[in-house]
């Protein structure tokens, strides 16, 4: 297949590009810069120039391919709500370009949207439209397109990691460095799911190769890692003290991260594994956190 990949030079998207090329697919990758375009050409991908701020430039890439994998996202979390709204606009623009074609559109969301209630694992068949994570806008855009006949599926992400980046943990590390302390709330027993970036890239490939309109997949290797365990490993790496904050005091310390600091985001991928035959093989989250170089600032 000729597959259009947004975010093609990013942390996850670049691995998706290499996974697709390595398994015989052609790739058309979105690039906003000359450096990004040069990298895509160097690995054997075609280039579609465009930006998320210009949804039609992204839609043109979707229109030119057999399938689309949308991994691009503006990770300026100080503008998280606005960036989620922007993602919705991009998804809708791509959907309009694909209307009536039955070509697969794989979009990206977070596992929290599958929350099944307090103390329960998030599940693929659940959509919690009331979840406080504004990334719900991505799934809402996808659901609207599906209702119009666009062939949409969703890959929901946990904390995606290697020894350089780890989802929300990357800004958590930088916040801890700036504050001089690694903190968690209460007992820190709330858990975050995780998966190695190479396993996630393979799941995107399987999702497009075995496309099922309306499916939601969880790219989850570990159902949940306690936030306290994460904090302890980060504290050791940074050489900083680790301490618990009383509930209700997280806002002042964590800033925009506060909305996630106390969430239990544990999630299942049982259905995903059964449906796609996906078996994660990469190192676990704490192994990558222990192996990273904490002298390098993000």
Helix and strand arrangement:
Blueprint: E1 2-6, H1 13-22, E2 26-31, H2 34-43, E3 46-49, H3 55-63, E4 67-70, H4 80-98, E5 105-110, H5 136-147, E6 152-157, E7 159-161, H6 169-179, E8 182-185, E9 191-196, H7 197-209, E10 216-218, E11 222-226, H8 227-238, E12 242-245, H9 250-254, H10 258-261, H11 270-276, H12 285-291
Parallel strand pairs: 1-2, 1-4, 2-3, 4-5, 5-6, 6-10, 7-9, 8-12
Antiparallel strand pairs: 9-11
Description:
This protein has 298 residues and is of the alpha/beta class. Helix content is 40%, strand content 19%. It is built from twelve helices and twelve strands. The strands form three sheets. A seven-stranded parallel sheet has the order 3-2-1-4-5-6-10, with helices on both faces. A three-stranded mixed sheet has the order 7-9-11. A two-stranded parallel ribbon has the order 8-12. Helix 4 (80-98) links the parallel strand 4 and strand 5 (105-110). The mean pLDDT is 95.
Radius of gyration: 19 Å
Oligomer: single chain
Q: How would the global form be characterised?
A: globular
Head-to-tail CA distance between termini:
36 Å
Biggest sheet overview: 7 strands, parallel
Structure summary:
Helices cover 40% and strands 19% of the residues. It is built from twelve helices and twelve strands.
List keywords for this structure.
12 strands; 298 residues; alpha/beta; globular; three-stranded mixed β-sheet; seven-stranded parallel β-sheet
């Amino acid at each position: 297949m000729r597959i259009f990949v947004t975010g093609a030079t990013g942390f996850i998207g670049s691995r998706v590009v290499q996974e697709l090329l390595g398994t015989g697919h052609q790739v058309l990758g979105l690039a906003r810069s000359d450096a990004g375009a040069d990298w895509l050409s160097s690995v054997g991908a075609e280039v579609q120039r465009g930006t998320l701020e210009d949804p039609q430039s992204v839609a043109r890439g979707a229109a030119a391919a057999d399938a689309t994998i949308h991994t691009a996202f503006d990770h300026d979390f100080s503008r998280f709500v606005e960036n989620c709204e922007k993602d919705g606009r991009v998804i809708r623009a791509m959907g309009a370009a694909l209307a009536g074609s039955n070509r697969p559109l794989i979009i990206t969301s977070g596992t929290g949207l599958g929350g099944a209630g307090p103390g329960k694992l998030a599940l693929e068949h659940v959509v919690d439209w009331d979840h406080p994570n504004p990334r719900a806008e991505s799934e809402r855009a996808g659901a609207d397109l599906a209702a119009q006949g666009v062939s949409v599926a969703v890959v929901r992400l946990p904390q995606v990691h290697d020894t350089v980046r780890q989802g929300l943990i990357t800004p958590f590390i930088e916040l801890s460095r700036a504050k001089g302390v690694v903190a968690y709330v209460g007992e820190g027993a709330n858990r975050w799911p995780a998966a190695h970036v190479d396993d996630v890239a393979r799941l995107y490939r399987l999702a497009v190769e075995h496309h099922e309109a309306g499916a939601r997949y969880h790219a989850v290797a570990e159902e949940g890692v306690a936030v306290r365990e994460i904090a302890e490993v980060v504290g050791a790496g940074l050489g900083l003290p680790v301490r618990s904050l009383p509930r209700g005091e997280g806002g002042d310390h964590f800033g925009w991260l506060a909305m996630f600091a106390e969430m239990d985001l544990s999630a299942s991928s049982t259905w995903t594994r059964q449906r796609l035959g996906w078996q994660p093989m990469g190192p676990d989250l704490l192994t990558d956190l222990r192996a990273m170089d904490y002298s390098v600032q993000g």
